[in-house]
Amino acid sequence: MIDLHVHTTASDGQYTPSQIIEMASSKNIGVIAITDHDTVAGISEGEAAAKKAGITFVAGTELNINFPTGEFHLLGLGFKQISPSLTLLLDTLVKNRETRNAQIIEKMRSEGVDITLEEIQSDFPDTVIGRPHFAAELVKKKVVKTRQQAFDRFLAKGRPWYVQRVGSNLDEAIVAIKESGGIPVIAHPMSLYLSWGKLPDALQDFYDRGVMGLEAFHPGARVTECLRLEEVAHKIGYFVTAGSDFHGEKIRADRKLGHTCGGRKIEDDVWEKIKDIIL
Known about the structure:
seven-stranded mixed beta sheet, 279 residues, alpha/beta, globular, 7 strands
């Protein structure tokens, strides 16, 4: 088994990079990519743990990209080094996230929730703070019963405490990933919220601009959708990846390490087709 889309405590995951590698080893996962949101902070720890465990490690990240509809996330897989351009891009994304977090706090406090950013940072040290952490804090303060309820009532798009993210320019992100020796891959393309009539043209445009891979298999999509994405990807020229987008059971109980859409195991043959491109 393999998994090319995993999150750790370096962003919004439940487990440290070392714990993720330990879990992967126990599940006979031979290849794993750590792809934390807008950071590469977990790579060194994950790589060292993977080396000890005899697991092939893929250094990565998941970047938020500005896009008019839905969410556009771009994976960078297989970094050989972290280029100055990627460092600058990540620093900008962190600053944008900090501004957004302050705005979310302001919205909460204006409606009577006694909460501070310092409080959340204390509960989640050495972590890129995002909405899952706000949701956890709301559960702790008994504002809601579950994290999902926090999103459904307050934090999801269109809800009262939602603040739009400011992401990266796609072309700049592609350059930064490639200058770091990595491969740009579109994560969970159904999240773009484009109709099947518009999606192929958009994917062709992204490919022409330098995106190389498509995460056709993701647990957020139905199996039939994933198979259709795979077909579109091959027609355009993308290589295809698969991931669990695992964050941990307490954060997303429906996602399991090493499994993708429909609960399917991510088999080694996915890696065999693309390893020479990524490594």
